[in-house]
Amino acid sequence: MFIYYYMYKIILAISEDGFIADSTGNIPWYIPHDLKWFKMNTYKSSIVMGRKTWETFKKPLSDRQNIILSRGGKSGVIQLYSVNETYDYFENNEGWIIGGTIAENFYRKGTLLYLTHVHMNVNNGTFLNLPDMKTIWKSKTFSQNGYMYTFTINIII
User: Fold this and answer.
1) In a domain? residue 138
2) How many domains does one find in the chain?
3) 2 in a domain, yes or no?
4) What digits encode the pLDDT tens for the residues 58-70?
């Protein structure tokens, strides 16, 4: 079997019913272990996010090259203006697509998708369609702050 390899990976947390944010645009869970998982994987890497994800941060994430994918101007940060420009960036740079619905633009066969499955239903908010994928690694199920969750690494098929 031939495996594709892209210079980027995608990392997201998602509810059982497919939501990545609630109706106010906020993440409806607080799981410090998931934040450590995110930091461990993205540390010293480029991270590309959409404007809405960027606006949820109080400041750039430390020890990472923060890049915003948006058509509107954002001062003080590196900005890419299109999906194609982002693909061009990843021709020479490794990194991550983090959060947000922009991830759907980067679903390509062979791309690795790191998911935190939060075992709860959100029912309303920002829904994310997941691609067809095969799980290549799965953690045990953890519990923290009243939330059950599982980490998986998947390959888009």
Assistant:
1) yes
2) 1
3) no
4) 899 999 999 999 9
What does 25-38 look like in DSSP terms, one character per residue? Answer: SS-S---HHHHHHH
Q: Kindly state whether residue 3 falls inside one of the protein's structural domains.
A: no
Query: How far from each other are the two terminal CA atoms of the chain, in whole angstroms?
Result: 12
Residues 131-157: pLDDT tens digits? 999 999 999 999 999 999 999 999 999
**Is 54 among the domain residues?**
yes
Residue 154: both structure tokens together: 């998947």
The identity of residue 48, as a single letter, is: V
The residue behind tokens 């633009």 is 105
Q: Which domain holds residue 55?
A: 8-156
Enclosing H/E stretch for 149 = strand 147-156
Please state the pTM of the whole predicted model.
Answer: 0.94
